Amino acid sequence: MLRPEYPIVTERLELRPFTEADFEPLFAMYSRQDVTRYLYWSPRSHDEVRDALAVRLRSTILQAEGDWLILAMQLRSTGAVAGEILLKWTSATHRSGEVGFVLHPDHHGRGYAGEAARQMLRLGFDEMELHRIVGRCDGRNTASYRVMEKLEMRLEAHFVENEFVKGEWCDERIYSMLAREWRSLTA
Questions:
Q1: What pTM does this model have?
Q2: I need a labelling partner for 137 at 20 to 30 A (CA). Which of 21, 37, 88, 168 fits?
Q3: What is the share, in percent, of the chain residues with pLDDT greater than 70?
């Protein structure tokens, strides 16, 4: 089980649970075609974002396999919500998890996703004692896979046309890191 103390403070970010007040920043992000291009869904309506926010309001601890921790990435300098960071507990038996992130395009290219993802890796490996954490992305999503490469996650698979998403066959890249690799990086 993981029940972090909030906010989780990094050099430039506060990672914190979503609140009702985060509807507008979440809508500003998820209603955009350029944000959802490589995700499984299309731009979301107000009602769909309200539903997504309701899920995020409940996703603040990891109690059981299958649970998601979904946190707002808030800039310490301005208080703006730059995006969201996720950690999923995928298997208790195999001690595995998954990390993910979504950023508003206004905040791309500044290293925020990597800064936040590093904290999710820390939570997963150091606090939950996971053995393995993966990250997945559409094979065309260069920005996402570069973040994982900068985190020194290892490319384990590049599946060619393995998913049919939004009317087209898409590639998927899967990156991974093991606990021993994390310990070596952070020693």
A1: 0.96
A2: 21
A3: 100
